[in-house]
Amino acid sequence: MSEVVVVIPARGGSKGIPRKNLRRVGGMPLVARAISAASAATLVDRVVVPTDDPEIAAVAREWDAEVVERPAEIAGDTASSESAVLHALDAVRAQGAEVGVVVLLQATSPFIVPATLDEAVRRVADGECDAVFSAVPTFGFLWEDVDGEAVALNHDASQRPRRQDRKPHHLETGAFYALDAEGFVAAGHRFFGRLGIVEVPEHTAIEIDTRRELEHARALAPLIDVPDPVEVDAIVTDFDGVHTDDTARVDRDGLESVLVSRADGAGVALLRHAGIPLLILSAETDGVVSARAAKLGVDVRQSVTEKGAALTDWAAENGIPLHRIAYVGNDLADLPCLEAVGWPIAVPDAHPVVLAAARLVLDRPGGAGAIRELAERVLAARATRSTEGAAR
Prior knowledge:
Blueprint: E1 3-7, E2 24-25, E3 28-29, H1 30-40, E4 46-51, H2 54-62, E5 66-69, H3 81-94, E6 99-105, H4 114-125, E7 131-138, E8 143-146, E9 149-152, E10 169-180, H5 181-187, E11 195-199, H6 211-224, E12 234-237, E13 249-250, E14 256-257, H7 262-273, E15 278-281, H8 288-296, E16 299-301, H9 307-318, E17 325-329, H10 335-338, E18 343-346, H11 352-357, E19 360-361, H12 370-391
Parallel strand pairs: 1-4, 1-6, 4-5, 7-11, 12-15, 12-17, 15-16, 17-18, 18-19
Antiparallel strand pairs: 2-3, 6-10, 7-10, 8-9, 13-14
């Protein structure tokens, strides 16, 4: 049977926003968001990322996409997306795959709804259309400035019908294009044969080309993103402000004590019972950190100056992909770790920059059940996945 292949072109060079495809929105790199959306579509068989950039390639593989090396001659500023898709299609076919539908999906559209992608693929696969693209309906009156004079484009300016009496026009979003593979190869461009439109929600129709659009997308992510189940293989946490309420008591002899939650201890016990590793990673030198880790029965690395490097080393030593790790932090020193993992998580009273970097903000604060909340989310996701697997 022929396959449905999604191609996500992601070159390393970008003039407007350097390293754009690796910038994070909602705690995930843009290229990872695109891979995740494509993988969530039920009709997609494989996801391919053609790139000229080793770092993008590494992230794509972390998120379980196939990588095709993109030659320099089709990776420059003037190279078309079509050239990248054609090259990737050749590479997939060279592996013996028969491709019926190929989808050009843009990583710069961070809020793709998988169901709309499925609808576009279905219409092409069923032969209704040769090419289907995403668009939003618009009732806007368009004008063109011609030598300083306004000229109406899509309406008669002398007769302005009410919105409910008009049919909408459609604005192309640039998010995705589902294409009959043979027709695309023959035409060499994405608009050929019978064209179709799949309407997508207007609030998701954002394309990132400028820094302002990137910040806009980051601000909207908490409002648009549907909370994903926290499917991870390990959890790494900061100590102060996560296992504690970020305060310390110091007696006259200089001895410190901190406040922790028994609920968090119970949450850690649940994780240990499920076989999910937990690491406490802290810059703190006081022995209270190691004492708490010993009490919980978990691994600890403290007095760490380079937390990002320590996390990466620990993940490599344990054979755990970074995108399968949740990291919980609360302050600026946690940013290298938050930017390295697939699940950057913040407690609710974290620094604003940390909150902006998080994919998930917990409801419970540090030292008051944050770890228990995360444990319950992780175990619930694992139980759901197990149930779904048994049903299949």
